[in-house]
Amino acid sequence: MSGVLGIELGSTRIKACLVDADDPTNVLAVGSHEWENRFEDRLWTYSLEDVWSGLQAAYRDLVAALGEDPDIRAVGVSAMMHGYLAFDADGELLVPFRTWRNTNTAAAAGELSDLLGTNIPLRWSVAHVRQAVLDDEPHTGRIDFLTTLAGYVHWRLTGERVLGIGDASGMFPVDSLTRDYDDELLARFDTLGGLPSGLRELLPRVLVAGEPAGALTMEGAALLDPTGALSSGIPLCPPEGDAGTGMVATGAVAPRTGNVSAGTSIFAMVVLEKPLARVHEELDLVTTPAGDAVAMVHCNNGASELSAWVGLFERFAAASGSAVSADEVFDTLFREALEGEADAGGLLAYNHLAGEPIAGLTEGRPLFVRTPDSRMTLANVMRAQLYGVFGTLALGMRILDDEGVTLDRMHAHGGMFRTAGVAQRFLAGALDAPVSVGATASEGGAWGIAVLAAFLGDAETDLSTYLERRIFAGSAASTVDPDPADVAGFATYLDRYRAGLAVEAAAVTAL
Q: What dihedral angle (degrees, nearest 10) is formed by the CA atoms of 11, 16, 21, 27?
């Protein structure tokens, strides 16, 4: 059976997903490899050696799950958006990979937001390169190519310096009409100087979903599969960021649709009908993989702190002689959270392992806070932890509400939604909107980029129609409407959460 391979490099896992080439809703096999970022010289990074050893491990795991070497018809690569990968003319990395998680670019982001007249978040690639210039880093005069993690992997596999428009829109602002970088804003940026050429010459070429993006070279095939079983010549779709693959994985690429992706980070994507009335520093303006304008609420911190608390209870169970699996612990604690009070009993959980620009935090300090009259039950503790995952996201989504942005449906995906009806219900309460979770929710972006690879070369239809008719027409999805008690309870929690950010800020200063 012919398959289409999707690979996504997430924050904690590299995942490979093989789908039926004729029916991408049919997942044939999945492989994965766990990895972690490193905090070195006060910057978050991954080594490029870990990129390739991890990709090879995930691919081997997929082949083992399938039981044979796959017949692959197309490939797609996705990864964490933003960040900074700078190479010289010999293809050598100039400084260690700086990920989206870094918040050292405040001066550059502020300068560029003023110059370009649009919000440039701290994690965007253009903020990183400008900050390097402002800091007089010697490597900036040798830059020949700037790209994202997905763009880098695609380049090494195919030799092509290209990027899908969704990922490109997190490097530099794009124009949704031309489906390319905004020429006027590029000209403004180039007046700043400090780089060896105009910025466009350093950036990947922009492609939209369905366009050919090169083919697997012999060297690329060997990088992915050192056994030699993988053939060269396989076509690849444009590499995309995890935000774009999340939209595809949830079928949310049309105006008035949106999705929430929850992992190490958490973000919401809302496809816009019209431009926003004004610039908001809490919102990114990016695009779908087809190039349509999207408002993005991106939070650096997602479910990692929640997972740490679950790990604590997993260890307690093992120490007590009643060892259970991590999935069982998650399920038990999530269901216990349903018994908690609507406002989490006065408890507060801050999940900030890293800095959080929306919350005004330059660094992270995870905190669990209660007052003497808070009700500290297990149910309230777990509800507070789940609410904490959505806290900063809700602050950003309130801005879209004020802009009058309307949603017909919001989809959610990510591992925390595997326990049916818990995180989904609390998210519906946090957003005061219906939330749908599909059968592929836990497969996430690796499946999403596989679908984009299956869409490669389909000139008969647009991406939104393709997803609606070919991928989601018969899909099973559960939708939860917001419970009025949850909406009111989360609103109370969020008021306390906002006020308690002063405690977070003090912790960053003191600890």
A: -90
DSSP 448: H
Count other Cβ atoms within 10 Å, centred on residue 481.
11
Whether the full predicted model's pTM is greater than 0.85, yes or no, is no
Q: What is the pLDDT of residue 439?
A: 67
Phi, psi of 76 (to 5 degrees): -135, 145
Compute the distance between CA of residue 250 and CA of residue 266 in angstroms, rounded to an integer. 15
Q: What does the pLDDT read at residue 102?
A: 92
Ranges of residues in the chain whose predicted pLDDT is under 50? 441
Per-residue DSSP letter, 275: -
Residue 94: its pLDDT value, please? 98
**Under DSSP, is residue 241 helix (H, G, I), strand (E, B) or coil?**
strand
What is the predicted pLDDT for the residue at 475? 74
Handedness of CA 320, 321, 322, 326 (dihedral sign): positive
Centroid of chain to Cα 315 = 29
Q: Write down the pLDDT at residue 261.
A: 85
Please name the residue that has the structure tokens 């056994």: 227
Cα atoms in the 13 Å half-sphere on the side-chain side of 88? 11
The tokens describing 313, both together, are 């209870």
